[in-house]
Amino acid sequence: MEIVEVVAVKLAFKMNQLENKLNTKNIKPTSMRLLVLKQLVESKSAVSLSELENTFEKVDKVTLYRTLKTFEQKKLIHSIDDGSRAVKYALCEENCECEPEDQHVHFHCENCEETFCLTNTGIPALNIPSSFKAKSVNMVYKGICANCAD
Amino acid sequence: MEIVEVVAVKLAFKMNQLENKLNTKNIKPTSMRLLVLKQLVESKSAVSLSELENTFEKVDKVTLYRTLKTFEQKKLIHSIDDGSRAVKYALCEENCECEPEDQHVHFHCENCEETFCLTNTGIPALNIPSSFKAKSVNMVYKGICANCAD
DNA sequence: CGATTAATTGCAATTGTGTTGCATTGCTTT
DNA sequence: AAAGCAATGCAACACAATTGCAATTAATCG
Hints:
By secondary structure, the first copy, chain A, is of the alpha+beta class. Helices cover about 35% and strands about 25% of the residues of chain A. A three-stranded antiparallel beta sheet of chain A has the order 1-3-2. The interface of A and B includes residues 123 and 139 of A.
C-alpha cells in the first residue's frame, strides 16, 4: 500500500469519527459541519465566531453562526462567556448534558485573549438561596495563562 | 422644624453619604456622578449601561459609560458578565479590592433578565493548574429568580 | 475677581458581534 | 425527474461598546 493511500485511509477514518460524533448527537453531517467540527476538535482553546470566520475565509459568517447554534443546541459544544466581547465555543466532554454538574471551570488569558477549558476542574456545588432555581452556571477565571506566564 | 426642612436635611445627609463614598474612593464627586451613584445604591439588582440610560433620559450615554468605567476602575462598583449581551454593574461591598477572595456569586434570571449579587455566597477557592495565574473570577448562575418562581 | 488650565460632559460617528429575512443551492424521497 | 425540505449564502439590521473632538464646567493661580 502506498503512503498516500495510508494517509487517505487515516483521513477517512478520522472523518468517520467526526461523522459519528455528529450522528450520535443527531446532527446531519454536512461537509460544512464536518469542517467546523474538525476545527473545533483540533483547536486547543475555545474559539469565537469571528475566529472561525478567519479560519475559513470563504465561508459565510451566518452559516458558521448557525452551525455553532445547532451544535450548542444538540449539546455537542458549549458556549463560554469569558468577559471578552465575543462568546467562545468549545467541545463538550463525552456524555455531557450541560447540567451544572457536567460543567467545568474556564480560564481566560488577559494577554493572549485565549480561553481554555479546565475540564479537570469541575464547578463545585454551592448553597445559593433556595428561592433561586439554577439551571446552568458559568465560572471563568481571568489572568495570565501558562503560555504567557514569564 | 418644618417637615420639609427635615426632609431636606435627610436628603442632604444622604447626599453627604454618597459624596463620602466617592471621596473615599478618590472620585471627584460631580453632580452627575452623585446621581449615578444614587441610582446604583437604590437599585436592587445590577444595572446595565442602557438601563441606566433609560433612567436618566436627558443624560448622554457616553457620559454614563465613562462614569461607570471610572467607578469600576476605582473599585466602587464591579462588572458582571451575566451572559446577556450587556455588561451589568453593581456596587462593591465595603473594603472590596475585587480580588478573587472578595468576589461573590451572581444570579441571572432568564425570565426577568435581572442579575442579582449573592453577596453572602463567596466564590470558593479552587485548585486550578498552578501554571495559570488568576487575577479575578466571574461566577454566574442562570435560572429562575425568586420573584419569577411560580 | 478674572484669566488660564485641567477635568468633565455632550455629540457625532465608528467598530464589532449577534441576528433576521429571504433567495438560492443541494440533498432526499417518491 | 419533480417536489419538498434542510442547509447555505447574501444583504441588511440591531445594539453594545468605544473613540475623537468640541463645548462646557470646575479648579488653580495671579
